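Hi R.,

Here's the chain you asked about this morning:
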Amino acid sequence: MQNFNLSDTEDFRIYQIIDANLDRAREGLRVLEDWARFGIGESDFVVKIKNHRQILGKNHLEIYKQSRNNIKDQCKGLNHQEQINRKTPEQIISSNAGRVQEALRVIEEFSRQHNNELSEIASKIRYDIYTLEIDLLNLTKFKKSLEILKENDLYVITDQKENLLEIIEEILIAGVKIIQHRFKKGTDKDHLKEAIQIKNLCKRYNSLFIINDRVDIALASNADGIHLGQDDLDLKTARKLLGYSKIIGISANNEIDISKALKEGCDYIGIGPVFETSTKKNKKPIGIEKIRTLTKDLTIPWFAIGGVRKNNISYLKSKGFKKIALVSQLMNSEDPKEDAIMILKDLNHEN
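And the predicted structure, written out as tokens:
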């Protein structure tokens, strides 16, 4: 029930507080709405945020607006240094989500006695914003990962090496933006420690870190994604465990497996082996023409893998292959940085 007293100075102060925080909440929501619309293109989130903003606007009563100039605001125009330090979309999302949450809490407290309906509305929206912030951050991260997949043509897969971290850093310095880590010998404790070290390296160079097979270690190390073979955990289950902030890649080499991967929502596909390879001795090459047939209608990124080396990249490019995955070529290189630079140049060079 609304209970207003226009003659009480204390009530005017309360109305002024509510008015200011309704403005703050709606402004913060508009920032989140525009990012959902233009930043990540998610219409469902746009509709949800817009609805919150419209509900608050509907409850922004004239009595609150009239209070703005009734009592002078002695703190008008105050700013904080942190406001100019927001440089990334993630920082802007978090700061504005926080602004909305704080404003709604103030509204909830000060409107409870005279406008309980608004108090309850503020409480419901505030709790929704907690989840919404995480969803927006996750989707923003996911979109960035997808952009890296689309924009980069060299995908490097690790092999067990004593100086693995040094090799990885060398190829990251060269400009490689996608690293997949395969586990060989060792305990899960060792694997997790190594995964975290590689993840930190990839983060330093703004590169994707993808774990092969092990969803548990991908989660524990905060990897950017997972790569699954046909005998690994199924994609639907992996997505339930990982959520929608992680990318999921699938190995496939026939029409049925590719179709299934696409239907279940994979983000990229590894196709091969193209040629004979020592890392997959038990698999026969499927050949260039077969791969061209399998990939002719693909709209998601796909990487050719298996026997790809420096000396056949130009040939693959002439056949329409744009993205490749390498293992031994760089893992066994005497100069992984220089080799990676040369391969990137070959891939970027137009035929």
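Strands lie at 154-157, 178-181, 208-212, 225-228, 247-251, 268-271, 302-305, 324-326.

Let me know if you need anything else.
M.
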